[in-house]
């Protein structure tokens, strides 16, 4: 069993930054991860036909269309973009979909019982039922070599064939939206649905080349996740009703009405939490693209690693993608002190100081929420001024600021609106 666990977790440990090591040591993350159950059966066997042919990529002649009677597909909301010039350029968007075998999670009861025991949940309680429902996407087998055809509503509607999915059961591609680019305009929201299952839907929001864009972290920036604590992450993810960070829904509503931005929610959470986080976003925050880590974890401890290991590298790579889509947008980045948001945004500012609108910086403002009241975090230097001075070296002082209360940012938003 130890050999199997090492095989699943990997024999090498990814490089960790000083801040990540500090967080993981203070919270005893490695010990908790080692005690959590595995989902080794999620990946199709190495010798299965689907697994082998998935390596053929887009040209896989053996890929199969998803079957709604046995398969489940998630279509992720996205943002369409077009090149700045000329205006007749086609709209494109990154389409992401994840495929699962319905109800295929083996030994889900065992995993639920294990987690319930660690979190002190009574057997047969409503909390245990909640755990089972939220664990299902982590337990179901992923499906490589699947395609899905979707209808993009318009005048007239158009169709796209997406896929096939790769070995991880996920597809990601950037097709052109069907029809004339003049069919839509900046700010439009287009409904998209699966041809074989009209209940499987997503929304595409169109973002023109110029204007504002908000890139917001999720965990402990707009949603209480207790990132410095392994048990805190597990409880807020699998048991509790998700809670907003006080004041942030009203602030984001004000930003949305004042700046009329395109929204991106950039989280280090795994893609298995997409529907959970999408429903949370829809209940409290403006519509926007949820960007999650596309890793098919084979251990429940994977969610802990996802939120605490190499988050800066991951987020910088996704911010570079947003920059490629919308290089002339004026960007505001919002995050918190529990992870590496400050270091991530500082790195991106330094990389793109002269290629934004009118030759200026791409990022116009950075706001970092200082998180207090968690003992494991308070024992670190994550809220120290020296940390932020180092993270934002080379970034003008008027561009970045820290805050503890959302009310501190309203004047800053008004000042940014006045510069447009």
Topology, element by element:
Blueprint: H1 2-9, H2 18-26, H3 29-35, H4 49-53, E1 64-65, E2 71-75, E3 78-81, E4 92-93, E5 95-101, H5 108-119, H6 126-139, E6 146-152, E7 158-162, E8 170-173, E9 189-194, E10 201-206, E11 212-216, H7 230-238, H8 248-259, E12 262-270, H9 274-284, E13 289-293, H10 302-308, H11 311-325, E14 330-336, H12 341-351, E15 363-369, H13 375-378, H14 385-391, E16 400-403, H15 410-419
Parallel strand pairs: 1-6, 3-10, 11-12, 11-14, 12-13, 14-15, 15-16
Antiparallel strand pairs: 2-5, 3-4, 5-8, 6-7, 6-9, 9-10
Helix pairs in contact: 5-6, 8-15, 11-12
What does this structure look like?
The protein is an alpha/beta fold and 420 residues long. The protein has 15 helices and 16 strands. The chain has helices at residues 2-9, 18-26, 29-35, 49-53, 108-119, 126-139, 230-238, 248-259, 274-284, 302-308, 311-325, 341-351, 375-378, 385-391, 410-419; strands at 64-65, 71-75, 78-81, 92-93, 95-101, 146-152, 158-162, 170-173, 189-194, 201-206, 212-216, 262-270, 289-293, 330-336, 363-369, 400-403. The strands form 3 sheets. Strands 1, 3, 4, 6, 7, 9 and 10 form a 7-stranded mixed sheet that branches. β6 and β7 form a beta hairpin. The radius of gyration is 22 Å and the shape is globular.
Brief sketch in words of this structure:
34% of the residues lie in helices and 20% in strands. It has helices spanning 2-9, 18-26, 29-35, 49-53, 108-119, 126-139, 230-238, 248-259, 274-284, 302-308, 311-325, 341-351, 375-378, 385-391, 410-419; strands at residues 64-65, 71-75, 78-81, 92-93, 95-101, 146-152, 158-162, 170-173, 189-194, 201-206, 212-216, 262-270, 289-293, 330-336, 363-369, 400-403.
């Amino acid at each position: 069993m130890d050999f199997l666990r090492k095989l699943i977790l990997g024999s090498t440990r990814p490089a960790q930054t000083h801040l990540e090591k500090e967080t993981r040591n203070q919270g005893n993350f490695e010990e908790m991860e080692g005690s959590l159950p595995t989902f080794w059966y999620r990946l199709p066997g190495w010798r299965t036909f689907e697994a082998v042919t998935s390596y053929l990529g887009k040209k896989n002649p053996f890929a199969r269309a998803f079957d709604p009677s046995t398969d489940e597909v998630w279509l992720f909301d996205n943002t369409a973009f077009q090149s700045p010039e000329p205006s007749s350029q086609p709209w494109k968007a990154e389409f992401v979909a994840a495929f699962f075998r319905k109800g295929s999670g083996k030994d889900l009861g065992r995993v639920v019982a294990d987690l319930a025991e660690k979190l002190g949940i009574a057997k047969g309680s409503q909390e245990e039922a909640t755990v089972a429902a939220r664990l299902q996407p982590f337990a179901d087998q992923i499906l490589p070599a699947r395609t899905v055809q979707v209808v993009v509503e318009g005048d007239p509607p158009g169709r796209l064939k997406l896929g096939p999915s790769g070995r991880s059961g996920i597809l990601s591609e950037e097709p052109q939206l069907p029809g004339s680019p003049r069919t839509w305009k900046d700010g439009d929201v287009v409904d998209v649905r699966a041809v074989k299952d009209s209940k499987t839907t997503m929304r595409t929001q169109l973002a023109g080349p110029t204007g504002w864009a908000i890139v917001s972290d999720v965990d402990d920036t707009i949603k209480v996740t207790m990132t410095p604590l392994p048990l805190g992450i597990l409880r807020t993810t699998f048991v509790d009703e998700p809670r907003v960070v006080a004041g942030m829904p009203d602030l984001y509503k004000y930003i949305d009405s004042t700046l009329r931005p395109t929204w991106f929610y950039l989280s280090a959470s795994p893609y298995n939490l997409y529907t959970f986080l999408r429903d949370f976003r829809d209940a409290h925050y403006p519509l926007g693209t949820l960007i999650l880590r596309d890793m098919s974890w084979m251990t429940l401890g994977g969610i802990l690693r996802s939120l605490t290991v190499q988050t800066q590298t991951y987020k910088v790579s996704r911010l570079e993608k947003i920059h490629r889509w919308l290089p002339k947008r004026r960007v505001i980045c919002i995050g918190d002190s529990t992870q590496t948001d400050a270091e991530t945004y500082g790195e991106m500012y330094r990389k793109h100081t002269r290629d934004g609108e009118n030759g200026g910086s791409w990022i116009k403002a950075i706001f970092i929420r200082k998180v207090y009241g968690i003992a494991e975090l308070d024992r670190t230097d994550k809220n120290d001024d020296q940390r932020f001075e180092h993270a934002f070296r080379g970034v003008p002082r008027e561009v970045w600021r820290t805050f503890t209360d959302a009310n501190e940012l309203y004047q800053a938003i008004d000042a940014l609106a006045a510069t447009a």
